[in-house]
Amino acid sequence: MLKLKYSNFTFECGTDEAGRGCLSGPVTAAAVILPNNFKHEVLNDSKQLSEKMRNELRADIEAQALTYSVAHVFPEEIDKMNILNASILAMHKAILGLKHVSDFIIVDGNKFKPLNNIPYKTIVKGDSKYLSIAAASVLAKTYRDAYMAEIHEEFPFFNWKKNKGYPTKEHRLAIQNHGITKYHRKSFRLLPQQLKIEF
């Protein structure tokens, strides 16, 4: 069973991001503060759940959370500041979007930067240990997937609806055949080294 809280603070917020390893689309973060009586049998790290289950959980989380917030950081900013800084920026934006000011932050992973002097703890594999981080991972993933499905309509040959912008063979082949779009991260290696790409 996942634990509800790491600290004794009232408004402990969990945060996580999705889309760090993608070639296109934003990196998306969510922040969630859960009530003290929150319980859930199914909630876990979003990577362990089916898409259908994630979407059902999203509705549960949104209905039961004290407050939640989701933020995107787009390719142009990712290219300027690198993906790690963009991921942290997305988490900061999500936390600042909450209706309650967090008095403690738990972060999935091992990298974070201080935000407004709020105490925080980074937790490796936190999304499989704490409910609020797991909830944030589900929201970040479902909101990002929905965004990728939207832009899929504009450029269907990349099949973002299915691959969500990750570096699948199909996605790389489409880049090779069609070039890149405004949604691609130009600072990423979009093709293996032997295949060159013209910007």
Structural descriptors:
single chain; 199 residues; alpha/beta; Nucleotidyltransferase, domain 5; five-stranded mixed β-sheet; 5 strands; 36% helix; globular
Task: Explain what this protein looks like in three dimensions.
- Pfam families: RNase_HII.
- Keywords: Cytoplasm, Endonuclease, Hydrolase, Manganese, Metal-binding, Nuclease.
- Belongs to the RNase HII family.
- With about 200 residues, the protein is of the alpha/beta class.
- The chain has a domain at about 10-145: Ribonuclease H-like superfamily/Ribonuclease H (Nucleotidyltransferase, domain 5, 2-Layer Sandwich).
- It is about 35% helix and about 15% strand.
- It contains six helices and five strands, in the order ββαβααββααα.
- The protein has helices spanning about 50-65, 75-80, 85-95, 130-150, 160-165, 170-180; strands at about 10-20, 25-35, 65-75, 105-110, 120-125.
- A hairpin with an 8-residue loop joins strand 1 and strand 2.
- Helix 1 crosses helix 4 (about 130-150) and helix 2 (about 75-80) packs across helix 3.
- The longest helix is centred in the last third of the chain and has 22 residues, at about 130-150.
